[in-house]
Write a structure and sequence with these properties.
There is one protein chain. The chain is mainly alpha-helical. The chain has one domain. It has 11 helices and 5 strands. Strand 3 and strand 4 form a beta hairpin. Helix 2 packs parallel to helix 11, helix 6 crosses helix 8 and helix 8 runs antiparallel to helix 9.
């Protein structure tokens, strides 16, 4: 039975008081499925991303009640590398494998082990090899805009769509490791890198300086995942929902170079990623058949 809007607001206020709610801002963009560019280098970047095993994470979204998004961040905490939280005052748990499914990231290929990406020291050497024009002694010295193309474009899109960063000038270690895995065509566990960032934000949510919600698009996906698993959770009469249409879209990047050498290398990277992606798709289909 539907209830009045006033009663619904009262129920929502009982879950998370208005004064304790976060601002749902533009910190987790979405990449359009039909994104294209007239600039050759950027188009190759988009083509390469489409072949990565984590491309869906750039695009996937959902509709979800804003109050459950607020409740997630109000109640979430990390226990044994899993996240525990409440929805409609009911306890729930998600871990890495659920997060992998939520973001629709392909699983590893058969029994092939994931490759551990290098740590900060080696990553800094890698970024310097990509033409970073400034001195980098630690990861906080890295500026995306100082990378040569097309790596600047890759890093910018990864930051804006996956890391939830409000700007893409700086680069976190996990984002640099994603870039390393793509460049070297390695079997990296990209879901794990995103998951570690996600739980880091949960562990440090009480130290945040601003009032903006972390990862609103990923938060909606978690909420939608739980609602689909548990039909008993009220749908709140579709009052104050955050819809897919509310996601800010990634548009473009300025100053794209036309360097034939980098274009050829990026196309070579694309061929290697295509082979990796097809293997992961085959493995995913095999798992579906046997479940």
């Amino acid at each position: 039975m539907e209830i009045s809007i006033a009663d619904q607001i009262a129920l929502d206020d009982a879950l998370v008081a208005p004064a304790d709610r976060l601002k749902i801002g533009k910190c987790n963009l979405r990449l359009s499925s039909d994104v294209t560019s007239k600039e050759a280098t950027l188009q190759v970047v988009y083509d390469v991303l489409k072949l990565t095993p984590f491309y869906k994470a750039f695009q996937v979204t959902a509709d979800a009640p804003e109050i459950y998004m607020q409740e997630f961040w109000a109640t979430a905490y990390v226990h044994n590398r899993s996240v525990r939280f409440k929805m409609n005052n009911k306890k729930h748990i998600i871990g890495l494998e659920q997060f992998r499914d939520i973001l629709q990231i392909c699983p590893k290929v058969g029994n092939k082990k994931f490759v551990e990406p290098p740590l900060e020291k080696e990553i800094l050497i890698f970024l310097a090899s990509l033409g970073h024009s400034g001195d980098i002694r630690k990861i906080t010295d890295v500026n995306v805009n100082k990378l040569h193309q097309p790596w600047r474009s890759f890093a910018a899109i990864i930051n804006k769509c996956l890391s939830g960063k409000p700007s893409y000038d700086s680069l976190r270690l996990s984002q640099a490791q994603i870039l390393w895995g793509m460049y070297n065509k390695k079997n990296v566990d990209y879901a794990y890198l995103l998951w570690e960032d996600f739980i880091f934000k949960i562990e440090n949510k009480n130290t945040k300086k601003g009032n903006a919600m972390y990862y609103p698009r990923f938060t909606k996906l978690v909420v939608n995942f739980v609602m689909e698993k548990d039909p008993s959770i009220p749908r709140r009469n579709k009052v104050n929902w955050h819809y897919a249409r509310d996601d800010p879209m990634f548009t473009t990047i300025n100053v794209i170079s036309r360097n034939e050498a980098t274009l050829n290398h990026t196309k070579s990277t694309m061929l290697g990623l295509q082979e990796q992606f097809l293997l992961r798709q085959k493995e995913a289909r095999r798992k579906l058949i046997h479940t």
